[in-house]
Every structure is written in C-alpha cells, then in structure tokens.
Write a structure and sequence with these properties.
Layout (H helix, E strand, L loop, with lengths): L1 E2 L6 E5 L2 E2 L12 E5 L2 E6 L12 E5 L4 E4 L1 E6 L10 H4 L4 H17 L2 E6 L6 H11 L6 E4 L5 E2 L10 E2 L1 H15 L3 E5 L17 H13 L3 E5 L3 H9 L4 E3 L14 H9 L3 E3 L2 H15 L6 H26 L3 E2 L16 H9 L4 H7 L2 H6 L17 E4 L13 E6 L2 E2 L19
Parallel strand pairs: 2-6, 3-7, 8-9, 9-10, 11-12, 13-14, 14-15, 15-16, 16-17
Antiparallel strand pairs: 1-6, 2-4, 4-5, 7-18, 18-19, 19-20
Helix pairs in contact: 2-3, 4-5, 8-9, 10-11
Length: about 425
C-alpha cells in the first residue's frame, strides 16, 4: 500500500476495481475522495482531487478491490461460538460478557464488517460497550442495538431480561427499551434453543405482537421477529413485523411444510428475510469435528444425518422464497451455537448456495442489509455523501465469493483500521472439518 503522509483531512483511495454496492459489478470510477468521515467524490483518478490548496493522503489499491464495508444484520457479541446454550452463557457476569463482546467487536471489524445489528445481549452489556467504542476506549463496528429481546415469561431469550405478558406490558417494554437507547425492537415470536421454550409454537398472541410493532413504529423503530415455526411467521407478518429471522416453516409436530400462501404474504408486504443458514451448518461442522478420532457411534451418525437433511430443507425453502423474489439479507447469527464472530462470509456463501445470484449475494451483505436495518442513508454503498466505511480486498469477490475472506484493509468513518501486524483473519476464520 503506497501512502503519502500529509496530516490532511482529505484522503484519496485509488482502485481499478471499485464495487459500489449498487451496480452489478465493478464500476468505471477508479478513485474515491474522502473528507473527514464522508465520501465527497467518486470518479476518474485524473479528476478526483481535493480542493485547491488542500493536500490529501493517497491510498493506492490499484491492484485490489474496494467495496462497501459489510453489514451483518444479526449478531450476538456476548457469546463465544463454542456451542454453549444461551441458558449457560447468561450465567456469566455482565462484566465478563462486556469484555468478551469487546473482543468480538474487534473480530467483526477486522473481518470487514463495519456495521452490525445486535440481536440479543444480556441486560445493558452492548449498550455499555457501544458507549465505550464511541468514546474511543475500544474499537469496533458501528452498532444497531435492540438493547434486549422482548420475550414471554420463560420464552426464548427470556433470561436476557425483558419478559412481558399482555399488551400493556408489551408496550411498556418497548418504551423502556427506547428510553435506554435501543435502535430497534427484537421479538422472540416463537420459542427457540432456550430450555424453557417451545420452538414449534408461537410465544405471543396477535394482539401482543401488534402492540409491540405499533409502539415500536410510533417511535420510528424497526422490528425483527425470531420465528422457528410457520404459525409464528404468520402471526408476525400479520402484526406488521419488518423482518422475519430464521423463517423456519414447521408445523406444531415439527414437520417441515413450506407454506406458499404465507411466503407470498411476506413478499407482498415487503418483509425482509434473515435466513441464518450457516448457524445451522456450523452445528453440522461441530458434530463432524466431534466425531473425528472417536469410535463410530450409530446415534451420532443418525443425529448428523438428521442435521444434514434439516439444513438441506432450509436451503430448499430459501430457494423457494428467492424464486418469489423475497427480500433476503445477510445476518449471520454469530456467535450463537458454534458460529464464531468474524465469519459472516459463511452466511453470504449459504445465500448463494440457496440460489441468490453473485450480485444479489454481495448486495445482501452491503446495500440490502443496510436498507433492512435502516442505516442505508449512511452506509451499505459507496456514493457521495455516505460515510466512508470501506472494505479493501486482495481480489474481486465477483470472480469468486471466497475472495471476501481476503481482507487487505478496512476503513471505518474514513479512518483506516489498525488490524495488527499479522494477518488477523488467520486467527478469526473457522475452518470446516474435512469430510
């Protein structure tokens, strides 16, 4: 990287491959002008210059690819990605969770994720971490926070601290979360991995869900609902939830039954879909890893086979949603289960596996993801007036999606991120077990 140190507030980034997040491939422009934290020019390098009399730092990435920083619409920074349940994670003191979240925030940023939407921390841990980052005490991506998910008593993630019953408490909890600084409202509309919950049945009734969404929208806050059953999806869509997380089509008996009518309703209403495919695939990888060098066990083999079939069904169902032109975005769900932070690219790969085109897959983790969480006026694309959150890759991801892993540099709000003297990704990327 050739850089002229001048101490100026202007920077010029040069690259023969600029992906703006809007077009379906690299654009003709080969220079970006940054003033402080903002992009103020995009065009030909012979024309892009700072104002007369001003100097600029030159970052020559001519042999690299420049694109918007990635936007991960679903993270859990409290966790470790080591397979432990949230029921166990929540037993750790808040102080330890804040420290681990700070470590995870660095991993996210170093991997090229410059914006995250946090989907379920304990108490105020992430609100406090964000304050620390904004003060400059820590480094990490920009954060959109739910504060805590809203759950029924004993429901999924109820241990994180926001349990409600009825419409009055539901509205009151939205107000409390807004007061605390939450950017959006996360709802656990069905059970999940929480031991006391049932993933196959709705948690809230329709009136409760409507109370939450109406109150959130009154404060101009978006909503997202965790749904691992068809009934939960239906109620959430009817209640005007903005995003469906997981979007698992299962009946009360656990049978996989894709519902075209509900899928079409999601599409008609413009609901965003956050499929979280890799968090399921990471469980398969963990099972395979645990079976290495162990005596063959019939029970383990059956469990692995079941998990693989379940993942295939999830991929097939997402393919059907894609065929219906559903709005699909990237939200990794890391560090839930065995999915470690810093590995958002695996989710992008899964979306392409399910049928998204290369261009739509890349936009799912830039422009579309930014739109889905309400930050597209600032990030998600490279354009005049946007914040200079920029990812520099060694190679073009349009040639091969795996090139998203090959991070050369990251800019956040116009400043280059110090990722250390060694290759940070070598310490971040989870490697799947060999077959």
């Amino acid at each position: 990287m050739a850089k002229l140190e001048t101490g100026s507030k202007f920077k010029i980034i040069l690259s023969n491959n600029i992906i703006d997040g809007i077009s379906d491939g690299p654009i003709k422009s080969d220079a970006i002008l940054i003033e402080d934290s903002k992009i103020v020019g995009l065009g030909n390098r012979d024309e892009i210059k700072p104002p007369i009399g001003a100097d600029a730092e030159i970052y020559d990435f001519s042999d690299s690819t420049v694109m918007p920083g990635m936007v991960d619409a679903h993270t859990h920074h409290n966790g470790f990605g080591d397979g432990r349940l949230g029921d166990e994670l929540v037993k750790l003191p808040d102080e330890m969770l804040v420290l681990n979240s700070a470590r995870n925030a660095r991993k996210s940023l170093f991997s090229g994720v410059t914006t995250i939407r946090e989907n379920g921390p304990k108490n105020k841990t992430m609100l406090e971490l964000r304050k620390s980052i904004l003060r400059g005490d820590q480094i990490g991506p920009r954060m959109m926070l739910c504060g805590r998910p809203i759950s029924i008593i004993g429901g999924h993630m109820s241990y994180f601290g926001s349990q409600v019953t009825g419409e009055v408490q539901s509205r009151a909890m939205v107000r409390q979360l807004v007061k605390e600084g939450s950017d959006y409202i996360k709802i656990t509309a069905t059970g999940g991995s929480t031991i006391t919950s049932d993933p196959l049945r709705p948690a809230f009734n329709l009136n409760e869900l409507k109370a939450i969404t109406e109150e959130a929208h009154k404060f101009n806050k978006l909503t997202a609902a965790h749904c691992t059953s068809t009934a939960g999806i239906k109620l959430s869509v009817e209640a005007n939830v903005d995003m469906i997380i997981h979007s698992v089509f299962k009946d009360p008996n656990g049978e996989n039954r894709f519902d075209n009518k509900i899928a079409e309703l999601m599409v008609d209403k413009g609901v965003y879909i956050n499929p979280t495919l890799h968090v399921f695939r990471s469980q398969i990888w963990a099972m395979q890893k645990n079976m290495i060098d162990k005596p063959e066990n019939k029970q383990d083999i059956l469990a692995l086979d079941k998990a693989k079939k379940e993942f295939d069904i999830r991929v097939e169902d997402l393919n059907k949603l894609i065929d219906l032109e559903a709005k699909v975005i990237t939200g990794s769900d890391s560090s839930w289960g065995d999915y470690q932070l810093g590995n958002t690219v695996y989710e992008v790969e899964c979306l392409e596996l399910a049928g998204l085109s290369r261009s739509k897959s890349l936009k799912s983790v830039t422009k579309e993801s930014a739109v889905s969480i309400g930050v597209d006026e600032s990030v998600g694309t490279l354009a005049k007036g946007k914040d200079a959150d920029i990812l520099v890759l060694e190679k073009n991801p349009y040639d091969h999606l795996d090139n998203l892993w090959k991070v050369r540099d990251v800019f956040l709000r116009g400043s280059i991120v110090d990722r250390g003297s060694t290759d940070s990704l070598s310490r971040i990327r989870q490697i799947p077990p060999r077959n």
